[in-house]
Every structure is written in C-alpha cells, then in structure tokens.
UniProtKB/TrEMBL annotation:
<feature type="region of interest" description="Disordered">
    <location>
        <begin position="73"/>
        <end position="97"/>
    </location>
</feature>
<dbReference type="Pfam" id="PF04203">
    <property type="entry name" value="Sortase"/>
</dbReference>
<dbReference type="InterPro" id="IPR005754">
    <property type="entry name" value="Sortase"/>
</dbReference>
<protein>
    <submittedName>
        <fullName>Sortase</fullName>
    </submittedName>
</protein>
<keyword id="KW-1133">Transmembrane helix</keyword>
<keyword id="KW-0472">Membrane</keyword>
<keyword id="KW-0378">Hydrolase</keyword>
<feature type="transmembrane region" description="Helical">
    <location>
        <begin position="12"/>
        <end position="33"/>
    </location>
</feature>
<dbReference type="InterPro" id="IPR023365">
    <property type="entry name" value="Sortase_dom-sf"/>
</dbReference>
<keyword id="KW-0812">Transmembrane</keyword>
Length: 263
C-alpha cells in the first residue's frame, strides 16, 4: 500500500508566519511587562496641600475606563467597502498569508504644526495617599521628552496610548501643545513604524484646587479605552498650572519607516 503526501505551500507559509508573529508578540509583551515592573515605586506619599491637583490621580485597578469618543464615519465610506456589481458571481479569491503588525513601544513624537520632534521615554508611577485612599500618579520626564506611562497601551494596540510632558519647565516639551486644534495631525514612531493620528478632542479642564471627584473625572481620560486612541496630557496655563490640557486623537494609519523592516 502506498501513502501519498501532498505539500500545501500556502498553508505551510501561513502557519510559519503565524508562529513568527506569536513569537514576536511574546517578545514585545515581555519587554512591556519588564518596563511596567521597573517603573513602579512602592513608596506611598502624602499629597502636599500646596500641590493639590498638580498631577492627575487615578484609582488603581479601575474598570470604568476612558470616556467614549463620538467619531463619525465620512459619508459613503462604509457603504463602499465590500461591494460588488449586482448579478455577478465571482469566486472568492484566496488571500495571501499576511502578518498583522505587532504593537510597538512609542519612541518618538512628531507634531509638524508646532515644530515638535521629541523622544518618548517610559515614565515612572508613584503611589500617593489622599485622605484614606491610595492613588497612582504618573510623573512627566524632567527633560525634553514626552513620557509614556507603561501601563497604557502600546502603539497599534486597542486601548489608550497616553503621553505626558511638562509645558513650562524641564525642557518644555509640550510648551506649544495648547495651539493644537481638532483635525490637526500627530505622528508617533515606534517599532520601525510611523503611526498617524488625527485630533478629535481638545479639552482644558480645571484641576488644581478642584475637588477630588472633579480630578478623578478628569483622570478618566488617561484610563484604558475600548478603542484605539492617543491621549496627550500637560498642565495649563504656563503662569499658574491651574488646569489640565487633554488632547485625544484617533488613528488614521500606519506605515513602515523608510528603509526599515517593521518589528
């Protein structure tokens, strides 16, 4: 009796790509977990009354999440997808095996409108006690760099990618952030890819000396989200820091950096 084997090159190639993707995802998640562990401080601080509201507070392990963005789809965009001519009977094409791009750690922030080109670095969190409750505070870098809280989403991942920075001290990385408007573009690079975003929300929220409930409501904008988004946070205005400037953008595309292979 003879046994016949048939080699399916397409299926083998797809399986190989899947395995490579899973290995790459595991490496990225391991690096992300290591950054999170390294950036946590276990010391609990009492918030000085003179700095009330200076840094956003977030309750640990909050499940409420960030507010929902109301984003409309351009007219006709959805209806054009997947349409065929009436009465046609076309065979379904066999898709080529593709590898879904992996989430990436943000490394560079570019906003052409305000001439901003800055590195992005992981930032530390500290635990702070207000009354009888312990909260987390993410601390902006004391240099010309945007900070990426490592508990927030990576680029290209469903969730809220948060970047924070000073606007009037330590390099003033977000000095001109208040000039941005809805519709402006933001680019973040990471993993040898360029991720593009379009601003949909620009908010100035009362923070310093605001009541605790208001501060926690403001902090919802840096909580995890059910959609993919980018959130930039700094203080405002430069002479008093009484408010929080929060800018939220939605993804509009990504592409490999010139001459680089995506990671």
């Amino acid at each position: 009796m003879k046994l016949h084997f048939r080699f399916d090159g397409w299926r083998f190639g797809g399986t190989l790509l899947l395995l490579v993707g899973l290995i790459g995802l595991g490496v990225s998640l391991y690096r992300w977990a290591e950054l999170r562990r390294a950036d946590q401080e276990v010391v609990v601080y009492e918030e000085p009354s003179s700095q009330s509201g200076f840094v956003p507070l977030t309750l640990m392990n909050v499940q409420e999440g960030a507010p929902t963005l109301a984003i409309s789809t351009p007219e006709g965009e959805e209806s054009e997808q997947g349409m065929t001519e009436p009465g046609t009977n076309q065979a379904t094409p066999v898709p080529e095996p593709t590898l879904t791009p992996l989430p990436a750690i943000p490394q560079r922030l570019i906003i052409a409108k305000i001439d901003l080109d800055a590195p992005v670095i992981p930032v530390k969190a500290r635990k702070i006690k207000v009354g009888e409750t312990v909260y987390e505070q993410w601390l902006a870098p004391d240099e010309f760099a945007a900070g990426w809280p490592t508990e927030t989403a990576m680029l290209g991942q469903v969730g809220n990618t948060v970047l924070i920075g000073h606007h009037n001290v330590h390099g003033k990385v977000f000095e001109r952030l208040h000039e941005l408007e809805a519709g402006d573009l933001i680019v973040v690079e990471g993993g040898n890819r360029r991720f593009s975003y379009q601003i949909v929300n620009v908010m100035i929220l009362p923070e310093r000396d605001a009541d605790l409930q208001t501060r926690l409501e403001n902090a919802r904008w840096i909580q995890p989200s059910q959609d993919e988004r980018l959130t930039l946070v700094t203080c405002w205005p430069a002479n008093s820091n009484t408010h929080r400037l929060v800018i939220v953008a939605r993804p509009i595309g990504q592409s490999p950096l010139p001459g680089a292979e995506p990671q």
